[in-house]
Amino acid sequence: MYLVLIYLTFVTFLLALILFRGIQTVKYIKRLTSNKERFFIFIPPSPKKTVINRFKSILYETALYCLEDEKEKSDILRIFIEHLPDFLKSDSWSFLLTPTKAHWTFLTWSKNLDFLPLEDIAYELENEGENIRNVLESNSSLFIKNVKENVTWKQENPLTVSWLGIPIKIGDEIVGVLNIDWFKTKKFTKIEKELARSFKIEIENVLTKVFKLNELFLNFHLDPLTEIYNRKALEDYMKNRQIITDNIALVFIDIDGFKKINDTFGHTVGDQILKTIVKRIKNVLRVEDYFFRYGGDEFILILKNINNHEDIKKIITRLQSIVSDTIIIDDYIIKSSCSMGYCLLPLETNNIQRAIEIADKKMYLQKSNLNH
């Protein structure tokens, strides 16, 4: 009995002590608040905030990469856009450029849409794509749970069941619509809608800033006629890469008979020829590749992750085939061609200037064989 009494006394004392400490703590917190100080309590961030912060982190890393690597605007847009579908867990996606003074065209898309006639689809959307028009006119995202039951949906895509269109605005201009596709009926939750809205805002803010910085930089490094990198850009590229250790291929390109084209058709037509050839080559280059105008009708390509002669020869054959397609300018039908030489780095040399000399010699050898 005596032990029980001692035990109850101890428990009572312990409870009183806990109560006293609790009252003292409350008074202390209240005093801190009254002194306009803050008592911080760690609260774990919400899942939504965690995802948005992760997305912002990726955007800033991407921005730094694009500026350091001197990417062109279309490449910057492509790289940024490709991050968003991953966060929305889509089955496929595409980004449709919607300029007001030119035809619509797809800039980039997921690999599982390669089989679709995207040029034809872009044309159909430009003329009959009511869902895209609604997105552009409202400058807000549009979600369609079942495209087969929606009257605005005109595409005959056998895969898409649910669709989300997100307009992407840079500065004051909507540059295009990101199409997010799901192959099963998608329930778009409130949190997912908020995330999509936040992603749109963040990507537009960062893109606008990157484009402004990029424009300031590119004014010094772009060829005004062809809108690819100029010789100054190549020189800066070489300064920053004295010794090459990564596998790259340098290709030297010279347009065949360009002086004769200028003499026959005039320099205005000659300029259009150059722009057409450059555009054709750009369309088959990857984001990580570089394209420089070396001077006049001479160009240099730097292609990453090429380490053997067989691969680069296939690429050159494809490029020459693309360039040789007939060009129609005004009433003139002109057949163009080009000679190309290459050098593999660091297989043949680890110096870019030396690689240019090697590729130049190979190009002239090809040109002389062509003339004979």
TrEMBL record:
Residues in the signal sequence: none
GO molecular function: diguanylate cyclase activity
Superkingdom field: Bacteria
Residue ranges constituting the GGDEF domain according to the UniProt record: 246-372
Keyword Nucleotidyltransferase: yes
CDD domains reported in the protein's UniProt record: GGDEF
Keyword terms of this UniProt record: Nucleotidyltransferase, Transferase
Key word ATP-binding present: no
EC number: 2.7.7.65
NCBIfam families: GGDEF (TIGR00254)
Protein name: Diguanylate cyclase
Organism from which the protein derives: Defluviitoga tunisiensis
